[in-house]
């Protein structure tokens, strides 16, 4: 197998503002793995809070020796090797994991939703993310999201009620909120969740700081809507920590090192009685299409990362009637537009 990679910078359509930061670009590293005439593609998306960057990803990838491997080996055997090289590096490993899944799917001429026995059309509606902004910009972004059946709204500052009210002045579309750890007082957080429910909010993502585990468990017990772990939940091993603290988990390929572990998380989270949200970073259609293969297993999807950028270098899963639907192409279902 031949591994190739290169840095790339995603340019956002709007400045993206969270409770603690703003940015208008996201660095990524694009990956390809070639074997027996097939090429699989992957991607590592690197928002600042992940603590990985292009340099660390490239350093990790440069240590991999995939040359001795071929399609004769099992996919699992290769991924075990990738994970053994060094601890951490979840986004870097996700890039390789996605590329290997794409490669193996192409080799047997099947998409992963087919391999897993899923119905691609049964995917849940995906949300469209609206970052923290001025009232006028919030209204404009809401109007631009008219093709979506669910809006995801970033909160966590003193403008929270203004943002929700601005959206409600434009649409009655259901809303989910992502507080990004922005509420630090549990009583204030509970008041906000009751108010949010009155405004048509259906669940809240990471309302409180990940360090406040007891407060978060208290909040979930009393909350009128489900609470979803994001910053508090990264890998499969974290499931035991959050299962009694949140109502569900937000699975992101960049956090959990790829498709293989994401699939395992879904299975074990369901056994624990938890809700499943399938999320993303700002990504090209490569990583979004990889996540879309799992989408029929989720309660909610937030797979709009490729729709937030202006320089997507792949074509893949598409927005259809409010859902991100996988293509019928093999592997993760993408076509490179300008990868090289």
UniProtKB/TrEMBL annotation:
Organism for this UniProt entry: Coprobacter secundus subsp. similis
Domain of life, source organism: Bacteria
Residue positions binding Mg(2+): 178, 205, 230
Cofactors: Mg(2+)
Top enzyme category: isomerase
Keywords, sorted A to Z: Isomerase, Magnesium, Metal-binding
Residues at the catalytic site: 154, 252
Recorded GO MF terms: magnesium ion binding; racemase and epimerase activity, acting on amino acids and derivatives
Cofactor: how and how many bound: Binds 1 Mg(2+) ion per subunit.
Protein name from the UniProt record: Dipeptide epimerase
Pfam families on file: MR_MLE_C, MR_MLE_N
Key word Zinc present: no
E.C. code: 5.1.1.-
Family according to the record: Belongs to the mandelate racemase/muconate lactonizing enzyme family.
